[in-house]
Write a structure and sequence with these properties.
The structure is a homodimer. Chain A is an alpha+beta fold. Chain A has a domain at 392-757: Beta-galactosidase, Chain A, domain 5, CATH 2.70.98. Helix content of chain A is 32%, strand content 25%. Chain A contains 18 helices and 27 strands. In chain A, strands 7, 8, 9, 10, 12, 16, 17, 20 and 21 form a nine-stranded antiparallel beta sheet that branches. In chain A, α15 (355-363) crosses α16 (370-380). The longest helix of chain A has 23 residues, at 80-102. Chain A is elongated, with a radius of gyration of 28 Å. The relative contact order of chain A is 0.07. Chains A and B meet through β12, β14 and β15 of A and β12 and β14 of B.
């Protein structure tokens, strides 16, 4: 461009004009021209954003240095070609934003070369050679990853749309983007035309490239799905989830918005998957908000997208780690890149909640776009307000009538939290676990009574290619792997997805009016043919205990005599038990043969001699020599004389060391109608540096069921000073106004409402 | 004192004069009048010190609020009376410093009341009713704790010496301090007249109260021990340690200084116990420096006290946690109160090394005295220099000729460390483990290949009263619990302390001249009658590997055919192995019957088919859902065809769940002269939030022993790009000048010096 003569000048002027005309529409997907101008104007004034810009430049510059790498697809997740193409989508999207923000053409050039390379390769690709997915991709082993790629690379293409020539655009659209969009939609309807997070990625990919190319047919297909998909109700995906669900006879993005969330924003698969699903929901929604304001996408279903972001934030422990219900990899948290994007978009587009800024601060980064810029700028202005977790009940199911998740949280005087999560949700599709009425317990540092989560190391090739492991099906999903009742050594719904999806527990009550006595109660009537279960969990703040107490009352009703097993997956090292037990010294055998029992080593057996059996354990004591302060917890149970008490551990029938060797305490009882009541107290601390134990013994002395009938269950808790608390539950009437009375010994115990503790 | 008449006034004047005369000498133990004046003058100018002052006031004020509590002694450690008396000693010492610094009489009054209560009680006390120690105390279950009490309460008494009346002083000296000093010295010579950390506490307690009371007999007894102790060489303490050690025929503080440390400051029991022992050494030494400057105590043995403080700091991992050699509770670190005091005293009295300030900053606190004040003030002045760990060899034994500890450390380009600790030390008295030539491996985050440490939860009453557990003897001390060779399923020295104390390994070479190739080598000739062992550990920095490689060559020489077991206690979760193994699916049995083998479950058995067997594991991945980044390590061994390869786990024959269920990999070989060579590579990372594995596979392909003779051992390491490194060791000649050559295949391999890697 150093030459200069009149004709050339005129040609350039003309070209410039043409570019200007066309350029009016790009970027318009996630970035907009106005947004880019706003950022450019303020470069250098917001350190947090400037750091993201500098880090991103360094990262992308390093890739540019390496050069374009578009290998012929061949590997599973974890393998080279998979990881390289995955890296490409992230780098290309970043390069696009860098080009727009900095104006440096090297970024546009890098994208151009990549797109040309992909377009050259794509028509030569057969179905991915692995052929191991229910919907195999082209660039990746599954269509899902192809759709991921498209969601990100659409943004890169949008950013360089005007940089590329018309011929180049025609080439990449014809040989890459359109055939890829067809592959993940019309050619794989099982993948595309479904209500599922996989399909949301598919819809978003198709819709976003449709918006960039201004292809109304693709946009409509993204919003409303395929008209004729030829799918039937018996098809399943790799996780055993059904492709088609009764009552969900629509597809496309609006159907995802209608059916994926409960009316209050809960995602039936749980927060680990919502985090993953959130990206296509938000990126496509933002693209629609920028391009199709008439759709009012953010207002859809009373603002379902905003609600879903908050459900993601509230379904975390005090450290921001997602409750690992259903299939979840532990450790995933609100620090993930998906939640960084969700928080920034929510802050920009949903009213600027200043509590979101505190999460952005913890995340330590923002997105390289207008949302991220606004977030960083307002943190810089000092607008941050600390995020407050809260007790909350989420309904499940698109209609909000398929049970739900009850979260109770209470603080001690130092602001340290006890949090119980009651799961009475629907099955959760292919990623659901058979754990009706299970609970998990957390404190400020993390897990105290754990949900095992999934048996999987995501993307670790050596562990089954990074996919779900066999033991996920045979152990992690089974009832015995959770903190809920197993009857006759058989999982809920016999471990059958179809049966589990046909039913759900129901919330009985959820009450957080009194911050000192918070309660959640739910019933499950269908998990077993001959038995029903009713569980009530209460967080009690009382000055006699340093931390909030968890009270758990699980009532089972059956006309038959059954074997009941109630596992408690206490997380840590056993310190003591106040009953005699015999540990297996020289040999171990399994707890059973099926339904997950075959994966559990029976380590010790004890016999209850009466009520008030206790176990005490260390939580958070890192045997690796960490300096986290250990906490001492005690579970006190209402075991009956003759109950068997087991200590056991996961790890049997595990040929490849896939299971974590985690401990469990199991109460076993033979009976018909029966109640398991217990209390969990966080009473002590121990620091291996000071070596001083504080309150190493529980203040609770006993827990006893002092009345149980069809109508009422009454439990008495006694502490070591002989102070007692009586919890009465009305089992069939939740009205606040109803009056109840039960004769306990010689005295009438009277109360009003569904339950009382006094 | 509200009355006022002339006579009374004159009496008071006289008394005041008397107090003034006497007051010239108090405080003079740890605090001095000049030091106190210096602190008083600067209150409010050093925030870190002011915070300690405020925190200490809050803590002591809360205790004053509760009131004096001097219960009749009855409990073991962890029980109420133990913990209360222990708390008293700390609070009284703090109250003394507060009285001196603030001048507020409530602190002196609180001490006075306590001392009077103790003095009233003490003559009524029989020997502590528990009677479970080799040297039972009066206030506590062991004399050791009585001595702890005296070391701290002497300081409190010094602080209020002038506040108390002559009558009161006479009373507490006659009924409390003198009889207590006699109890822990003349009445318990087994405790007092020994070279051992217990006795150091005894000496210091007797000496410090002697200095406060200006009792020359007690001071002499502290410095030089009891003349006639009536002890014989067969007596042992509760840990199985011998009371008398051959060649150590003196006692008292000077004998402790002479025999407790190697000439370079290493403490034979290891840093966990040195931390504990340090307090009486430093407090008594400082008291002597203040009162008996003629003794030049800080110069004694070429400044042995200063050297010992540095050995404490260097024998830690990158996070400041002590290497848990011998009996150690994990998690103990330089953040302990003992090291806070040691660092502050070292900074004040040993030349003001500014690196010490960075440790004080990490500790986040200082002592409430002149040393702490000076430390905090210089941090405030910005004098801090970052502490640098370093590769270093410590000798063991008072003469420095009883083996030692070799520490090699190397960083990767990000400043992350790999550190190997080679233990070729003397037995370590009663707290020693039978682990000659063992090693442990650390990275920046902590343990990678662990030393199990002790089986004990210090002060946790439910775990055997907080004392050493049975499994400490039967498992934690045994050879199989360590990363070193076990021959014929028998621990080193058959697990006998007397035999182990009679010998020690010897350093063969230690070479850190080249930061890219650091090496330590040692030999053990006596652990087995018919076999000798020679181990060389090398940290290799090479641009082909992201992190420094550990190379391990263990050569065993025996004319007999033996069964060799080489355990590697890899810390974390097994990811993969490149050889076939059969895991026990439905039942487990133990690895053996004795010498610790009875405590190990045999989980899986494999057979080597040749060289280059590998196992890969996750380290630092907190299954509790922590967000620490996981690291991937691979061990590559030179196993021979036919070697058996076991995966096993601690926990068998453990009736009370005392053992941690930690995993171990064991190579078993039958042979005579044999070499076990291996490489450990830190190659990968995995973050559960990004779910991206970085370098999940090792770059090492194989390790092979390509020559082994009496004179030379040669090992070849090959990476996946077929690049090779050859390590040659001269087994009998360490001279730098000596020339060596070995024929490998058709070629002569030549080098100069004890070893080469090229």
């Amino acid at each position: 461009m150093k030459k200069n003569n009149n004709i050339q000048f005129l040609v350039m002027l003309f070209l410039g004009l043409a570019i200007h005309l066309s350029a009016q529409n790009h970027p318009n997907l996630i970035l907009t021209k106005e947004g880019v101008a706003e950022i450019r104007k303020n470069i250098g004034t917001v350190p947090m954003f400037d750091k993201v810009l500098a880090d991103t430049k360094a990262e992308v510059d390093a890739e540019i240095e390496i050069g374009v790498k578009v290998p012929i697809p061949k590997d599973m997740a974890g393998g080279y070609t998979h990881e390289r193409h995955k890296k490409n989508w992230f780098i290309l999207q970043k390069a696009g934003n860098l080009y727009q923000i900095t104006g440096e053409e090297k970024y546009a050039e890098y994208i151009r070369q990549n797109l040309l390379a992909y377009a050259k390769m794509f028509p030569t690709l057969p179905k991915h050679p692995t052929d191991r997915s229910y919907a195999t991709g082209k660039i990746f082993w599954q269509c899902l990853n192809d759709a991921n790629w498209l969601v990100y690379v659409s943004q890169a293409y949008d950013a360089v749309y005007n940089f590329m020539s018309k011929e180049e655009r025609d080439f990449v659209e014809k040989d890459l983007f359109r055939p890829l969009a067809e592959w993940i939609s019309t050619e794989n309807p099982k993948f595309y035309n479904r209500v599922h997070n996989h399909s949301t990625w598919g819809n978003a990919g198709v819709g976003m490239i449709g918006l960039v190319m201004n292809d109304e047919a693709l946009i409509q297909r993204a919003l409303y799905g395929l008209k004729n998909d030829g799918l039937d109700n018996s098809m399943v995906d790799n996780d055993g989830g059904f492709i088609k669900v009764e009552g969900q006879n629509r597809a496309g993005f609006f159907a995802q918005l209608d059916f994926s969330f409960s009316p209050d924003g809960h995602f039936t698969e749980g927060p680990y998957y919502l985090r993953y699903a959130m990206t296509p929901f938000l990126l496509f929604a933002k693209s629609l908000a920028n391009n199709r304001p008439d759709l009012k996408i953010y207002d859809y279903r009373n603002g379902i997208l905003e609600k879903s972001i908050y459900s993601l934030l509230y379904e975390t422990d005090a450290q921001g780690r997602f409750f690992p219900i259903n299939d979840s990899q532990k450790g995933m948290s609100w620090n993930s890149r998906e939640v960084v994007a969700a928080v920034d978009i929510a802050y920009l587009d949903f009213g600027g909640d200043p509590m979101l800024l505190s999460i952005a601060q913890k995340q330590g980064k923002v997105t390289l776009d207008v949302a991220g810029f606004k977030t960083a700028a307002d943190i810089e202005k000092g607008l941050t307000v600390p995020f407050q977790h809260q007790s909350i009940a989420y309904s499940d199911g698109a209609d909000g009538k398929h049970g739900g998740l009850g979260i109770l949280r209470a603080d001690n005087p130092d602001g340290e939290e006890i949090c119980v999560v009651a799961k009475y949700a629907a099955h959760g599709m292919g990623h659901g676990h058979f754990d009706k009425l299970s609970y998990s317990l957390y404190d400020t540092d993390g897990e105290v009574i754990q949900d095992y989560g999934a048996s999987r190391w995501v993307n670790i090739d050596q562990k089954g290619g990074g996919r779900y492991l066999k033991e996920n099906q045979t152990f992690a999903k089974q009832t015995i792997a959770h903190n809920t009742l197993v009857i006759n050594e058989t999982s809920h719904y016999k471990g059958k997805v179809k049966a589990a999806e046909a039913h759900h527990p129901d919330q009985y009550f959820f009450d957080i009016k009194n911050p000192n006595v918070q309660a959640v109660s739910a019933k499950e009537l269908h998990a077993y043919e001959d038995a029903t279960m009713h569980r009530t969990l209460i967080l009690l703040k009382d000055k006699n205990f340093r931390n909030p107490l968890l009270i758990d009352v699980l009532k089972v009703t059956s006309e038959k005599q059954n074997q009941y097993d109630l596992p408690t997956w206490f997380h840590g090292h056993l310190v003591d038990a106040n009953f005699d037990y015999a540990k297996q010294l020289n040999s171990l055998t399994t707890l059973g043969n099926d339904h997950g029992y075959q994966h559990i080593w029976k380590e010790a057996t004890g016999k209850s001699e009466g009520q008030g059996n206790q176990i005490t354990w260390f939580a958070h004591q890192n045997s690796g020599g960490g300096e986290m302060q250990g906490k001492l917890f005690t579970l006190t149970t209402s075991s009956l004389p003759g109950d068997e008490l087991f200590f056991a551990r996961a790890g049997a029938n595990d040929p490849s060391f896939n299971l974590r060797p985690d401990p469990v305490f199991i109460q076993r009882r033979t009976g018909g109608n029966s109640v398991f009541a217990s209390v969990v107290e966080s009473h002590g601390t121990y620091d291996p540096v000071s070596e001083i134990p504080v309150s190493p013994f529980s203040q609770v002395k006993s827990v006893a069921v002092i009345h149980d009938s069809r109508a009422y269950t009454v439990v008495q808790i006694t502490d070591k000073n002989e102070k007692s608390w009586t919890l009465a539950i009305s089992n069939e009437e939740t009205s606040d106004q109803a009056n109840h009375e039960v004769k306990i010994g010689e005295k009438m115990f009277k109360w009003q409402g569904a339950y009382i503790i006094k």
